[in-house]
Amino acid sequence: MAAPGATFRLLLPFRPVVAAAAVRSYGLRVSGTGELVTHTGQVNKNFAIDLIAEQPVSEVESRVISCDGGGGALGHPKVYINLDKDTKTGTCGYCGLQFKQKHH
């Protein structure tokens, strides 16, 4: 009579242990110019700070405004921005959008 585990071992497929041929990096890679390289090897030339700088300053009527990033669930938590005379413009701390109060 065979040992109880012998039959079970025969049912399992034989898989030889092979060392990994290549190590895959899952971190961010940076090109020589400082640009981020995507997982497909493409260079991402759109930096978020540059995209926000292209947005015009929004003029609003009230002294206190709220910003939630727009886009519903794709936005950010709602914040209130006080447009004082000293600052001239208010900037959202989450998305970087700028607001300016219209003076009558």
How is this fold's topology laid out?
Layout: H1 4-11, E1 29-30, E2 36-37, E3 43-44, H2 48-53, E4 58-60, E5 64-67, E6 79-82, E7 89-91, E8 98-101
Parallel strand pairs: 4-8
Antiparallel strand pairs: 1-2, 2-3, 5-6, 7-8
Unreliable residue stretches: none
- Characterize the biggest β-sheet: 3 strands, antiparallel
- What integer is the average pLDDT? 75
Shape: elongated
Helix content: 10-25%
The SS-based structural class is: alpha+beta
Task: Count up the helices.
Answer: 2
Strand tally is 8
The fraction of residues in strands falls at: 15-25%
| Spatial strand sequence of the major β-sheet | 1-2-3
Q: Provide the succession of SSEs.
A: HEEEHEEEEE
- The end-to-end distance, rounded to whole angstroms, is 99 Å
- Gyration radius over CA: 28 Å
How would you describe what is shown here?
With 104 residues, the protein is an alpha+beta fold. The protein contains two helices and eight strands, in the order αβββαβββββ. It has helices at residues 4-11, 48-53, and strands at 29-30, 36-37, 43-44, 58-60, 64-67, 79-82, 89-91, 98-101. The chain has a three-stranded antiparallel beta sheet, with no helix packed on it. The radius of gyration is 28 Å and the shape is elongated. The mean pLDDT is 75.
